[in-house]
Amino acid sequence: MYCSKCGKEVDESSEFCKYCGARLAGDTPEASSNLTVEDAEAVPTYETPRMIPSDMIERNERMVFETHPSMMEAFFKYIAGGILLIAGGITLMVVLGWVIVGWVLIGAGVIIGLIGFIKWRSVVYALTTDRIIVLSGVLSKHLYENRLERVQDIRMDISVRQRIFNYGDISITTAGTGGVEYIWRNIPEPRKRQRQLRTVAAE
Fold first, then answer.
1. 43-69+123-202, which class in CATH?
2. pLDDT digits over 60-84, tens only?
3. Are 172 and 183 in contact (CB under 8 A)?
4. Chain-centroid distance, C-alpha 68
5. Which of 19, 63, 174, 179 could staple 129 via S-S, CB 3.0–4.6 A?
6. CA separation for the pair 190, 7 (Å, rounded)
7. CA-CA distance, 34 to 157, in Å (whole number)?
């Protein structure tokens, strides 16, 4: 049997589509009265990707979420240093009159800040109804994907700094591997993303 809403093949005995949550044809209100609308739509999905190229999405595959890593980690590693260099360069130019040294520091600060921004922008974490996807790279692109049916264990690690700014690391172990297959590093709202991944992978 196929879902009339998303077109995916589902089990004949199912009351709701495990991919989009729609009620399947032939269900009676009595048979599904113990499920609420919130249960059926526990993990909302959408059809058109916003960050992942649309030609990477398979037929009838739906998106659960797409996100960049937390901007705060890029700030701590790169952007804050760039700002300090720019401020130091301006100070040297104004206070000591060291124009050349000041411009060198300003230029270095701008470059470091841009590197941080580009590195942050070039990584996309995505979860679909079928796969885990990580797309990274600026000029050359690197793709990691894994089928949800292969996911075995999900671990979440949140440091003190990550907890303050609401981001963390989610480690994914898959069938056929001896350890962690991949880590969503510095992903925003880690508790929410971990719940979404666990729910979709269990369906």
1. mainly beta
2. 899 999 999 998 888 888 888 888 9
3. yes
4. 6
5. 19
6. 30
7. 35
SS (H, E, C) 156-177: EECCHHHHHHCEEEEEEEECCC
Let me know: does 22 contact 5? Beta carbons within 8 Å: yes
Tokens of 150: 């292969």
The number of beta carbons lying within 10 Å of the beta carbon of residue 80 is 15
Phi/psi region, residue 10 (left: phi>0; alpha: psi -120 to 50; beta: rest), is beta
Q: Does residue 120 contact residue 112 with C-beta atoms inside 8 Å?
A: no
Strand order in the sheet with 142-147: 63-67, 124-128, 131-136, 142-147
Tell the burial category of 188 from Cβ atoms under 10 Å away from its Cβ (0-12, 13-18, 19+).
buried
pLDDT in tens, 174-197: 876 666 778 899 999 999 999 999
Q: Which two tokens stand for residue 91?
A: 């100070």
Which whole number is the average pLDDT over 48-66? 90
